Amino acid sequence: MSYAFKTVASPVGALKIIASDRGLSAILWEDDDPKRVRLGPLVEDPSHPVLLETERQLAAYFAGTLQAFSVPLDFRGTDFQKSVWAALLTIPFGETRSYGDIACQIGRPSAFRAVGAANGKNPISIIAPCHRVIGSAGALTGFAGGLEVKRRLLGLESSKAAASSGQLL
Protein backbone atom coordinates (compact mmCIF):
# COMPACT_ATOMS: atom_id res chain seq x y z
CA MET A 1 0.00 0.00 0.00
CA SER A 2 1.29 3.45 -0.83
CA TYR A 3 0.36 6.64 0.97
CA ALA A 4 -0.36 10.09 -0.46
CA PHE A 5 1.36 13.07 1.11
CA LYS A 6 1.70 16.79 0.87
CA THR A 7 3.58 19.37 2.89
CA VAL A 8 1.64 22.27 4.36
CA ALA A 9 2.80 25.43 6.10
CA SER A 10 1.62 26.08 9.65
CA PRO A 11 2.41 28.47 12.51
CA VAL A 12 4.49 25.66 14.07
CA GLY A 13 6.50 24.88 10.93
CA ALA A 14 6.03 22.77 7.84
CA LEU A 15 3.92 19.66 8.41
CA LYS A 16 3.95 16.59 6.18
CA ILE A 17 0.43 15.19 6.10
CA ILE A 18 0.01 11.60 4.92
CA ALA A 19 -3.15 9.68 4.03
CA SER A 20 -4.30 6.28 2.87
CA ASP A 21 -7.54 5.70 1.02
CA ARG A 22 -9.18 5.16 4.43
CA GLY A 23 -8.11 8.36 6.13
CA LEU A 24 -5.32 10.46 7.57
CA SER A 25 -2.38 8.28 8.60
CA ALA A 26 0.19 10.78 9.86
CA ILE A 27 1.13 14.38 10.53
CA LEU A 28 4.90 14.63 10.69
CA TRP A 29 7.04 17.50 11.92
CA GLU A 30 9.80 19.14 9.87
CA ASP A 31 12.55 17.47 11.87
CA ASP A 32 10.64 14.29 12.70
CA ASP A 33 12.66 11.15 13.32
CA PRO A 34 11.94 8.90 10.31
CA LYS A 35 11.84 5.89 12.65
CA ARG A 36 9.06 7.36 14.86
CA VAL A 37 6.29 6.69 12.32
CA ARG A 38 6.78 3.93 9.79
CA LEU A 39 4.48 3.71 6.80
CA GLY A 40 4.76 2.26 3.31
CA PRO A 41 5.92 4.11 0.20
CA LEU A 42 4.89 7.77 -0.10
CA VAL A 43 3.62 9.43 -3.27
CA GLU A 44 3.15 13.18 -3.42
CA ASP A 45 -0.50 13.95 -4.19
CA PRO A 46 -1.51 17.49 -3.21
CA SER A 47 -5.07 16.95 -4.51
CA HIS A 48 -5.86 13.85 -2.39
CA PRO A 49 -9.26 14.59 -0.78
CA VAL A 50 -8.24 13.53 2.75
CA LEU A 51 -5.14 15.71 2.55
CA LEU A 52 -7.12 18.70 1.29
CA GLU A 53 -9.65 18.33 4.12
CA THR A 54 -6.87 17.88 6.68
CA GLU A 55 -5.16 21.03 5.42
CA ARG A 56 -8.46 22.96 5.67
CA GLN A 57 -9.15 21.73 9.22
CA LEU A 58 -5.59 22.40 10.41
CA ALA A 59 -5.80 25.96 9.05
CA ALA A 60 -9.09 26.48 10.91
CA TYR A 61 -7.58 25.02 14.11
CA PHE A 62 -4.60 27.39 13.96
CA ALA A 63 -6.94 30.30 13.17
CA GLY A 64 -8.86 29.48 16.34
CA THR A 65 -12.13 28.61 14.59
CA LEU A 66 -11.99 24.80 14.94
CA GLN A 67 -11.91 22.92 18.23
CA ALA A 68 -12.85 19.42 17.06
CA PHE A 69 -11.43 17.68 14.00
CA SER A 70 -13.64 15.47 11.82
CA VAL A 71 -11.19 14.19 9.21
CA PRO A 72 -11.26 10.35 8.97
CA LEU A 73 -8.27 8.71 10.66
CA ASP A 74 -6.34 5.58 9.69
CA PHE A 75 -4.08 4.71 12.63
CA ARG A 76 -1.36 2.10 12.07
CA GLY A 77 0.09 0.55 15.22
CA THR A 78 -0.32 -2.15 17.84
CA ASP A 79 -3.63 -2.71 19.60
CA PHE A 80 -2.19 -1.11 22.74
CA GLN A 81 -0.98 1.95 20.80
CA LYS A 82 -4.36 2.30 19.11
CA SER A 83 -6.09 2.19 22.51
CA VAL A 84 -3.85 5.02 23.74
CA TRP A 85 -4.39 7.05 20.58
CA ALA A 86 -8.16 6.54 20.84
CA ALA A 87 -7.97 7.85 24.41
CA LEU A 88 -6.13 10.94 23.17
CA LEU A 89 -9.10 11.72 20.94
CA THR A 90 -11.31 12.02 24.05
CA ILE A 91 -9.27 14.78 25.71
CA PRO A 92 -11.35 17.95 25.35
CA PHE A 93 -9.95 21.00 23.57
CA GLY A 94 -8.10 23.23 26.03
CA GLU A 95 -7.70 20.50 28.68
CA THR A 96 -4.83 18.19 29.62
CA ARG A 97 -4.47 14.69 31.05
CA SER A 98 -1.54 12.90 32.65
CA TYR A 99 -0.01 9.67 31.39
CA GLY A 100 -1.51 8.03 34.46
CA ASP A 101 -4.96 9.37 33.59
CA ILE A 102 -4.70 7.83 30.13
CA ALA A 103 -3.43 4.53 31.59
CA CYS A 104 -6.46 4.39 33.90
CA GLN A 105 -8.81 5.34 31.07
CA ILE A 106 -7.68 2.39 28.95
CA GLY A 107 -7.92 0.00 31.91
CA ARG A 108 -4.16 -0.39 32.45
CA PRO A 109 -3.46 1.85 35.49
CA SER A 110 0.12 0.71 35.99
CA ALA A 111 1.05 1.12 32.32
CA PHE A 112 1.73 4.87 32.45
CA ARG A 113 5.26 4.42 31.05
CA ALA A 114 3.93 2.32 28.16
CA VAL A 115 1.30 5.00 27.61
CA GLY A 116 4.15 7.53 27.38
CA ALA A 117 5.93 5.39 24.79
CA ALA A 118 2.73 4.97 22.74
CA ASN A 119 2.05 8.69 23.04
CA GLY A 120 5.52 9.35 21.61
CA LYS A 121 4.72 7.13 18.62
CA ASN A 122 1.39 8.86 17.91
CA PRO A 123 1.46 9.29 14.13
CA ILE A 124 -1.31 11.89 13.94
CA SER A 125 -0.01 14.76 16.07
CA ILE A 126 -2.29 17.74 16.74
CA ILE A 127 -5.47 15.91 15.62
CA ALA A 128 -4.87 13.02 18.05
CA PRO A 129 -3.77 15.56 20.66
CA CYS A 130 -0.71 14.01 22.30
CA HIS A 131 0.33 17.58 23.16
CA ARG A 132 -2.49 17.55 25.75
CA VAL A 133 -0.73 14.82 27.75
CA ILE A 134 1.52 16.11 30.52
CA GLY A 135 3.46 14.75 33.48
CA SER A 136 1.59 13.90 36.69
CA ALA A 137 2.93 17.04 38.40
CA GLY A 138 1.81 19.21 35.48
CA ALA A 139 5.21 19.42 33.77
CA LEU A 140 5.45 19.53 30.02
CA THR A 141 7.12 16.34 28.90
CA GLY A 142 8.51 15.03 25.60
CA PHE A 143 6.80 15.87 22.33
CA ALA A 144 7.86 14.97 18.79
CA GLY A 145 7.35 18.57 17.66
CA GLY A 146 9.46 19.88 20.56
CA LEU A 147 8.46 21.34 23.91
CA GLU A 148 8.17 24.89 22.55
CA VAL A 149 5.60 23.71 19.99
CA LYS A 150 3.75 21.78 22.70
CA ARG A 151 3.68 24.96 24.80
CA ARG A 152 2.36 26.95 21.82
CA LEU A 153 -0.39 24.43 21.03
CA LEU A 154 -1.53 24.31 24.66
CA GLY A 155 -1.45 28.11 24.81
CA LEU A 156 -3.50 28.44 21.63
CA GLU A 157 -6.08 26.03 23.00
CA SER A 158 -6.27 27.45 26.51
CA SER A 159 -6.78 31.00 25.22
CA LYS A 160 -9.51 29.90 22.76
CA ALA A 161 -11.19 27.66 25.35
CA ALA A 162 -11.24 30.54 27.87
CA ALA A 163 -12.58 32.95 25.26
CA SER A 164 -15.34 30.55 24.16
CA SER A 165 -16.42 29.97 27.76
CA GLY A 166 -16.60 33.71 28.42
CA GLN A 167 -13.69 33.80 30.86
CA LEU A 168 -11.33 36.73 30.91
CA LEU A 169 -7.87 35.97 29.58
Describe the fold and architecture.
- The structure is a single chain.
- Helices cover 35% and strands 14% of the residues.
- By secondary structure, the chain is α/β, with parallel strands linked by helices.
- The chain has two domains: 3-63; 79-164, Winged helix-like DNA-binding domain superfamily/Winged helix DNA-binding domain (Arc Repressor Mutant, subunit A).
- The strands form two sheets. It has a four-stranded mixed β-sheet, with helices on one face. A two-stranded parallel sheet has the order 5-6.
- A hairpin with a 6-residue loop joins β1 and β2.
- The longest helix has 18 residues, at 147-164.
- The N and C termini lie far apart (47 Å).
| CATH class assignment of the largest domain | Mainly Alpha
Q: Roughly what fraction of the amino acids lie in strands? A: 5-15%
What's the helical proportion of residues? 25-40%
Number of strands: 6
Total domains: 2
CATH A-level architecture of the largest domain: Orthogonal Bundle
What does this entry show, briefly?
With 169 residues, the chain is an alpha/beta fold.
Identify the notable features of this structure and list them briefly.
alpha/beta; 2 domains; 6 strands; globular; 35% helix; Arc Repressor Mutant, subunit A; 169 residues; two-stranded parallel sheet; four-stranded mixed β-sheet
List the helices and strands and how they pair.
Elements: E1 3-8, E2 15-19, E3 24-29, E4 42-44, H1 49-63, H2 79-88, E5 97-98, H3 99-105, H4 112-120, E6 133-134, H5 147-164
Parallel strand pairs: 1-4, 5-6
Antiparallel strand pairs: 1-2, 2-3
Helix pairs in contact: 3-4
